[in-house]
Structure formats: C-alpha cells, structure tokens
Amino acid sequence: MSGHLLSTQPEIALFASLAIGFFIGSFKLGPIQLGGVCGTLIVALILGQSGARVSPDLKNIAFALFIFALGFTGGPQFFANIGRGWRYGALSLVEVIVVVALVLGIAAMLKLDPGTAAGLLAGGATESAVIGTASEAVARLGLPPADIARLQANIVTAYSVSYLFGLVTIVLFSSQFAPLLLRVNLRDEAERVWRKLGGDGALAQGQTPAVSPLAARELKVDGAAGSSIGELEKRFGNNVSVQRVMRDRSLIRSQPSVTLKAGDRIVVAGRREALVEAIPWIGEEVFNGGGDVFVEKADVMLTNRAMHGLTLAQARARANPAEGRGVFVAAVTRLDSTVPALPGTQVQRGDVLTLVGNKEDVARGAAKLGYLIPATQKTDFVFLGLGVLAGIALGRLSARVGGIDLSLGTGGGCLLAGLVFGWIRSRYPVIGSLPSAAAQILKDFGLCTFIAAVGLSAGADALRLVREFGIALPVAGIVITLGPALASLFIGRALLKLEVPMLLGAIAGQQCSTPAISALVGVTGNATPVIGYTITYAISNVLLPLLGPLVVGLVSKLG
Q1: Which DSSP category does 384 fall into?
Q2: Residue 94 to residues 98, 177, 298, 494: CA-CA distances in angstroms?
Q3: DSSP E strand boundaries for 248-291
Q4: Distance (Å, whole) CA 358 – CA 314
Q5: What single string gives the DSSP state of each residue in 135-194?
Q6: Residue 269 pairs with which residues in a beta bridge?
Q7: E strand or H helix at 77, and its extent?
C-alpha cells in the first residue's frame, strides 16, 4: 500500500490493521496465541510509518464503547464476588499491589517516563484497557502537544514489547512451572477436585459430552410398587423426576401423591448417575421410549440472594420439593465461560443457569431463581446512551491526592458506569437489553479500533523507544508478570488453602489472560480452573484499568 494513499484515506489503514492483525493473531504456537488486539497493534505500528492517522474523536468514542461494554457484562459478577468471593478476590488485590510496586521500582531504576511506565503496566499485566486510561491521564499532564504525543506513543510501544513476553510468561507459569513448584501432578489434582465436586470422569472446557449428564428412561414398575411418586423422588435426593405414568393404557398426570402400582409404565428423568442408581430399585427398563421428556431449555439469570454461594446440591436440598421438582441445571455460564454444572459447584448471583425440564417445571424454577433471559437481538440504545453519558460525566470528576491530580477520565468513568448499569440490568431485566453478541462486538471492535488508532499515531517513536531501552523492556515485562503470579501462588496455597486447579485458574484470571486459562484447561483435562478464573477476572478487569492514571500520576510526580 502506498504511503500517500494511507495518509489521505486513513480508514484503509484502520481496517487493514484490523484484518491483517486478527489474521496474524489467529496463529498459535503451542499454547501461545497473540490474539487480535496485539496483532492489530503490531500491524498498526508498521502502517503508522506511512503517516496515516485516525481522528482522535473516533479513537475516544471506540474506547468509551469498549470499556462501558466491559463493565456492563462484568457488573453482576463483580458485585456478586466483591465481598463473598474474598479468598479469590484477595489475589486480585495481590496483583494490583505487586504490579504497582514493581512498575514504580523499574521506572525509578531505568528512569522511565510516565508513558513507558504505564505501557509496561499494561503489557506486564496483559490488560489492554490500561492503554486507554493511561493515554487519557497523559493528556491531562499539561505538557506541550508534542510531548503528549511522544508519551502516548511510548505507552503503545512499551505495551507491545512487554505484552509479548508477559503473555508467554503467564501461560507457561500457570500451566507448566507452577505445578512443578508445588510438586503436584496437575491433571491428577484436577480429576480429584472434579470428583470431589460430584463429577464422574473428566470433561475439558468447551467440549460437549458424548453422553448428556441428564437422561430419561421408560421403566416397568416392580420394586417401587406401593410407593408414591413423591417418596420415589425423595429417596434419590430429588435428582430424578417421574415425568409420565401409563396405567392400563391410560395416561395419569404425574403428581407426588400418585401411588405407583406393579406393571405401571413410567418415564423417569434426571441426572444420569441418580437414574442409574434408581432403575434397579424401580423395575425393569422398557427399551422404546423416554428420550423425549426434556422439551424445554431456558437460560435464567440467577438473582436470588439466598442461592448465592450454595452448591447445586445444597440448592436442590433446600428447595421446596414441589417447587424444584422436574427441573434440572444442565449448564452454568459465568462471564462467557462455562463452569462445570456438578453437584458441588457453587453458584453466584449473576450466573446464567441453563434449565432443562418440562415447560411448566422450567417456568416455575426460573421464577424462583431469577429471570428468564429473552432470546432478543435488540439493544436498548436509550440505556446504552445514558450509560456512556453517565460515564463521561463521572470521568470529569478529579481529586488532588498527595500533590497528584487523579481523575478517572472517560475510560475509568465509563468502566464504573458500565458496572453500575450492568448491575441495574441484572436486577431489573425489563430494561437495558444488551445481548451478549452485541456486547462482544462493542468490546472487540471498540478496543481494536482504539488500539489501531493509537498504533498508527505512534509512528517513528516506536523504533526510538526500542533502540533506547533494548532488552530492558522485555525483561521488565517478564518481571512484572512473574512477580504477582509467584506472590499469589504462595499466598493462595499457604495462607488461603485454595485447591491447586482453582488457584492456578485464579492466577490466570488476575492477569485477565484468556490464553492462560485455555492452556490450563488443556493440561488439566477438565474445567475446574475456570471456577477460580472467573472471580479474579471480573475483579481485575475493573481494578487494573484504574491503575493507568495512578501510575502516570506517580511516575510524573516522582520525576
């Protein structure tokens, strides 16, 4: 592409950065994958040598949409975990404290400017959103425009170099080195925890079981004759449900008070392990039916406070048998990650539970748990617009602490507004529709458009910074990544007594590293690390971006 064409039509440079960047980011080397964000940044830095520049207004709008959507989708989980998930949440605080201390120490040692220090924070913590909040903070330092442009370019360059090495470090540490330090076989540990939670065999994250954990069978009553349906279901912990009763070619409505007779043909449905236990006691299996019982499947946002922190087994045991009868949890989704729906799995407010059962059973269960998530593709732009406006207004607030001017900026304001508006949506589901697919496109396109814009504007400053510091930036990225990971490993195991798979998942989450959790799940062979990952990921996704202005302010103050 000619430099003149790119400089006169910057939209070509923008979309070329996105297309080529995502293509490059899609390649994997073992468990390592750059991803679209880093790929876009690298391409934008190269194309930026042509002089192509994207309007600052577009850059600011894209970042505001990205970070509002980030807060919106994480709001329910953030507020659910900020207090009760304290053992995992403490690791996010460890991440924040250690990362800030390391960044300030390295900045003093290498005499870094505020932009380079903030870029190391973003890259070492593998949190791209810091680029936006730090860039805004640099713009408020009151420096000449040329100096502001140079510092903002330093943020991007330091991020791109340190992110590469930070990413490799956290992936290898969480999946390979940490188990060696703890002297455990990670796959064996994960299988033990899986079985402790009530799982039967291992299932990797993202895989679909060849055999469903829920099943139905048609049986001819023998041993259960004389027992009522309610007694039968209670005997097996209400993990099975009699869905249909056929007696002398007449269909009888299945109710707990109905007494079964020898020769009745009944359809029993429920969790497979309970069904296997129940069949010999009930009678003989009839091999011609039962597979059509589960006719309704619905996603429900959990909002019931009494359910928060309970395992699925505890929730079923505490439920009124009449209310919980015939409805089963087939899947638990938390922050777009699938958490294993095992009897020992703890559920949290903000989880999305996939309920399976007859239509009336699912509707009854949904009313007790929270609210049904409607299958809509429409976005409530009134709610979205008001949320972004509230974030912009919040970002204009500032305070002076210890001689340092601190302000949330548009990024921090929109993040906090997104959290609150996402929480409001979870409490009042009739307003604020933002389907997950729409939220994802806002996050992906918003962030990568912003990243491409700042990469294009970095220009020749990128090469200057790399020549100036050389190998120091990659080494600093490794140190900033490894420091909090090692501290969390010690604190999580020795003091908090966390199970190893969940602890390593939490370490991946405190770094907001999707490649790390993917590698972990591949090594463990099941989804147990995701349980720890989702909590720290939700909290760190809020705390780390807010550190951008703090580091810029501290480093500029310290000289």
Answers
A1: H
A2: 6, 20, 38, 14
A3: 250-252, 265-271, 283-286
A4: 22
A5: HHHHHTS---HHHHHHHHHHHHHHHHHHHHHHHHHHHHIIIIIHHHHHT--HHHHHHHHH
A6: 216, 241
A7: helix 56-84
Question: Exposure pattern of 512-533 as b/e (b: 16+ CB <10 Å)?
Answer: bbbbbbbbbbebbbbbbbbbbb
Give the C-alpha separation, 81 to 461, whole Å: 41
DSSP bridge partners of 259: 228
Residue 291 has pLDDT above 60, yes or no: no
DSSP type of residue 251? E
Coil, strand or helix at 103: helix
* Domains contained in the chain, CATH given: 3-61+83-192+444-558 (no CATH), 214-286 (3.30.70.1450)
Distance (Å, whole) CA 393 – CA 29: 44
Distance CA 139, CA 179 (A): 43
Contact 383, 432 (CB under 8 A): yes
Q: Which residue type does 252 have?
A: I
Helix, strand, coil percentages (3-state) for the chain, rounded to 5, are 60, 15, 25
Residue 273 has pLDDT above 90, yes or no: no
| Beta strands at 337-339 and 352-357: parallel, antiparallel or unpaired | unpaired
Residue 237: what are its φ and ψ, rounded to 5°? 65, 25
Distance separating alpha carbons of residues 420 and 414, to the nearest angstrom = 10
Instruction: Please state, as a whole number, how many other Cβ atoms lie within 10 Å of the Cβ of residue 244.
Output: 20
State the Cα–Cα distance between residues 235 and 258, nearest whole angstrom.
15
Report CA torsion sign: 27, 29, 31, 34. Answer: negative
CB distance 46 to 17 below 8 Å = no
DSSP assigned state of 327: E
In sequence order, what E strands does 404-483 have? Answer: 404-407
Backbone angles phi, psi at 90, to 5 degrees: -60, -30
- Structure confidence at residue 401 (pLDDT): 65
Tokens 């349980």 sit on residue: 531
Confirm whether pTM is higher than 0.90. Answer: no
pLDDT digits (tens, 9 = 90+) for 155-200: 988 888 888 888 888 988 998 899 999 999 988 888 888 888 776 5
Low-confidence winner among 67-71, 154-158, 418-422, 462-466 (lowest mean pLDDT): 462-466
